[in-house]
Amino acid sequence: xxxEAAERYTEEYKHWDLLELGWKYNMSDIxxxxxxxxLAKVEQYWKRREYVYRRYLKALSSVxxxxxxxxxxxxxxxxxxxxxxxxxxxxxxxxxxxxxxxxGVAVNYRSINLLTKFRKMFGKGEGSFxxxxxxxxxxxxxxxxxxxxEDEIDxxxxxxxxxxxxxV
Length: 168
Prior knowledge:
By secondary structure, this protein is mainly α. The chain has helices at 5-10, 29-35, 42-60, 91-100, 116-122, 130-138, 150-164; strands spanning 82-85, 139-142. The relative contact order is 0.17.
């Protein structure tokens, strides 16, 4: 990838691209060993992420011009992301405005046929997978982690409502 995760979250958001295939290493063995005590909190953290997810889902489901993926009733999720879908023509402006208001946002998944490496490998460019492209071009990931406070969750919701709702 041409952008490190830290760059995608600490600077003004710029889209990333996949230039070469490779490995994804998030941490060393030593870092993993230091995190071993966190395993005792996995269930607690998962429940808190589920709570944040459901708060977002309930609050944002009635916001005009905002949609989000829905889970199947019997699905089990890690609740590691909460994504919203907005008008693709407005997505980058909405991203920028959310970021300017202090909301940490990202685009975690893009349509892979638009990434440089896969475009070169398979020759499937823009227009080849219109549904995947529409979703990838509409998606914004909102903050979702166990230590989000109630005030922070409320702020994210209010800010998305303010920024994403189209005014005519």
